[in-house]
Known about the structure:
The protein has 1202 residues and is an alpha/beta fold. 42% of the residues lie in helices and 15% in strands. The protein is globular.
Amino acid sequence: MFVHLHTHTEYSLLDGMSKIKEIVAAAKAHKQTALAITDHGVMHGALEFYFECQAQDIKPIIGLEAYVAKTSLENKDNSERSPYHLTLLAKNNIGYNNLLKLSSISHLEGFYYRPRIDRSVLEKYSEGIIVLSGCPSGELMTHLQNEQEDDVLETIKWYKRVFQENYYIEIQEHEQQQFSRLTPRLIDLANTHNIKIVATNDSHYTTNEQHKFHDLLLCIGTNTTIDDPKRFKLDGDSFYLKSSEEMEKLFEYIPEAIYNTQLIADEVNIQLEFNRTLLPQGTTHEGRSPTEQLEYLCREGLQKRYSAVDKKQTERLKYELKIIEETGFVEYILIVNDIAQYAKEKKIRIGVRGSAAASMILYCLGVTNIEPTQYDLVFERFLNPERKEMPDVDFDFPDDKRDEIIQYTAEKYGHDRVAQIITFGRMGAKASIRDAGRALGMAYDDVDKIAKLIPDVLNISIQQALESAPEMNDLYKNDSKVKELIDNALGIEGIARHASTHAAGIVISAEPLEKIVPLQRPTSTKQSLSSQIVPTTQFAMDDIAKIGLLKMDYLGLANLTVLEKALDFIKETQNIDIDLDNLEDGDPKTIELFAEARTFGIFQMESSGMRSYVKELKPQNIVEIAAMVALYRPGPMEQIPNYIDVKHRRSTTKYLHADLAPILDETYGVITYQDQVLQIVRIFAGYSLGQADVMRKAMGKKIPEVMAAEKERFISGALEKGYDEKISEEIFNLIEPFAGYAFNKAHAFSYATIAYQTAYLKAHFPVEFMAAVLCTSGNSLGNNQDKISPTLAECRKIGIDILPPDINKSKSNFSIEKNSRENSSIRFGLSRIKNVGSATAEQIVLERQSNKDYTSLEDFSRRSSTKVINKRVIESLAKCGAFDCLADRNVVVDSTEQIISLNHAERKLKDTGQKSMFDLFGDEQIMPLPELELNRSNYTKDQFGAWEKDLTGFYFTEHPFLKASENISSFLSTDIVNINESLSNSNQRVAGVLKKVDFRTTKYNKRFAIFELEDLTESKEFVIWPEKLQKFEPLLVPGNVLMVEILIQNRNRGLSLQTNGIYAYDRESQKIVGFEEKDLKKIQPVKKNVSKNADSNNNKIHSLNNLDSKSFKNEGLNIYIDETNDIQSDKRRLSRIFNLIDDKSGNTPVYLHINSIDGKKQSLFLSNVSVDEHLIRDIKILLGVLGEIIYEKDSVSSASAI
């Protein structure tokens, strides 16, 4: 029986494409008893392969195709760019451990284009390893091809000496004559030197039909196209997993080569151990055992945390300590505590996500700041004694401090015992289309068009896209080129494309990791010294967990960085120390911020949908914020209106059974948390909380057989407790969907706490908070204008002045300045200007702070380092106004060459050790600097603004739409920032400055355009199709102010903003060209004198005070709206409400309730309408944070109360 011993999977990245489950199934179908995995230089798939083989009753043979240096792994010159290939197989557990070591060494020590070992390393770790001489790229075959007879013999003798009977000569047959001609010679060498010969098939894909997709994969990996005659390729279609019959036929002339494959398989015996607990020793003191140390720290912490300890807290701590000891995770908790204490010692903020906040132990240790009994957090969600899985503590650190924590962990527990965790990026639907298109040599625009037709749905497949996107399906059926593209993309979809470092995962071991997992260098690292680099495992997260290693998540969270930075700013500007961990829950200003949905920059609360719900909910404390965090997800989101209505007493909760009330009252009758599911199961079916959590996790997998078994068990338990069968089944049906998607309560409270802390700082210290948000925009120093721009717009919205970049006042990042009246503003940082960067900015600031302010352009030129200052930097600084304090911007922009020339001349003198004319006068002398011969142009304010926007994301001079907006805002239906899914299938009118236009052609070769329009709030792209383009193309000139009528549609791939009409605004006349204002539907203001309106039969607005209560109907739509200082916006908002109502005539009365700025309240009857969910939704969107809409039964009492 033949066994495949040379097999590549998808983990031979962009070279192999066999998925492990498929290739093992193919071997099983061929009735083969064993199978090897030999990926190029890596063991990424070894454990996945091991488990899959066991599942399909195939013997797993773990190996790799190693790269062997031609000389030494220390040698890294050009001769080593193409190392030899060698097939290595683990014969037993010793061999497996040596493979781990060899693979790790190849990556950590020998990497040069490829992960390499050499003969000396191979000999050192040779025990238990079977060696096959390799493919045509192997050492033996290379010498044969080059007719280097002495080297051939030396190679055979060396490998036979080191590996003895475990060395085999490998032969292959892929119908490539340049290699096939050498097979007789290989057989002759094997016979001469008494070496067994073995046949292999260099499998890179599973079936021969996949060879064309594999060819495409090679093009992707080598960045070539299928038509490139010089590209690397595997000739023919024979590199698949052949059947035993096919292999026996190929080598019928030497049957022992087939027999020996089974011989090797029989010799292999690997038995790997799993589900162990490989925890390092935790820190102990004064001779205490780990258990005693943990108990000591917890008792000490209990007294510190509580002013008066009660029995409930004492019993809870005692119970948790007992479970921790019984499950064997004492050392785990001590390590968690050690990391947390280091962070606190270094004043690094920490957050704990997941279920860890449910632990009293972690609260007493100071790892978390959430008291679990206060919020009824269930410990069994953190550590379940009946599931006996390692608990999961996931840390959040400021994103700029994460590396410091990783370094500490490595130094504390050993650099050889700490690693990051690998993860694999796979070819998703869009990526497969784009990669396939590039490899096929198709035009970018053609490929991009198809990729964009795929709906923006998480993990959607190409097949699902074809089924849900009619346009894509139509092209697939009718366009042969599109069909070829998609068919090829389908062939490579889902394959592992690249390896990267997991964003959070860290593994800590009690012994050197190289004995347990293979390691490799991280894909990216900020450490400069190789000794500091923390490697990554070659096994992914799931495999790490099965081994039993301690795994933690260290996640870099930008919001913690914001909190740290904001606290620093507050201390710097106001000398106030804020203790965020002891804030008053329900602080009035913070609650007001949530009630008004001013949640830009607030953790978890920024999306438009969340802001809308927060506005309706008006949360009063962390408990209600946590509920919103938990509910605002697909599925639970449907329950948010119920939660809000019950909270505001617009409806009441009806429980299936009274015993649900104590569990669900805190969330207004809505199942919100997993913990509530556990409590329900415990109360109704008599489960322990541990058993309930096992049930919850099983039900979450949605396996029908499991669901049926759990239902039967639940009902049986409920019957035993005295509940009748009908109610028991109804309760199970109630909790069933929530078991899969209900939120972890401890996690929700952890996030809600951070949300509350960020909101508190924004409410009380808005300048400091927004400056911190700006400093961390983009998650690192740099430009990131796309992320900075919305934050700057928010600053302007809430009245914070943004000062322009200034060479003498700006710091590297954003900073806070106070004027003579002690009013604070935010100064734009030099490093956040496009093309400048942090190194340049820091050098400029350091020179200024070390000496004095720059006095002129000449002075700046003289003092600046040529290493960081170049023409591009000078141009960027000049155009955004950073030199305005030294010279007229018109002059500086046109004189960058002269500035750079002077700078270089001075530096050249200094670098050669010569005295410059400046130095001759000495520091004490005032020497007039040579004047630069500067040019001058007269640029417009619009040009200044365009430069500023491009380089900083903000207009400092004047937004080009500012004046126009004052004149045409009353004609608009919405701002660009408010265009979202809620406006789907509606016609809207917006206006702004045309930023850019991209003309394209349809598949029918007709021109259309995509243009970007920007108003004072945001910019978005709009499409104008051929028919409309013919009419309006002359207006599409960048810089023009345009008013655009659009149709908003929600397509599978996102919002489509289709242009129906365009009107130009003339800046001189301040009017819309070609249109009389009377022809535009203007918004009529609400008139203050409502008594006159009440008497007018032609006016639909009537004061409720002038109407008899008998005229009211029993139900009505009540609209509550706040008046603002922006009259034009108020007019526009009201006009749009009237327009919506005009289109919905019916029998339900609509009442408008206005809260005036002066405190007066007024109620108006508008008209009778037909109410549906679309009308309510549209009005809600129009109101935003400035009002609310209530559709209720008793409108009379509601109106009368105003």
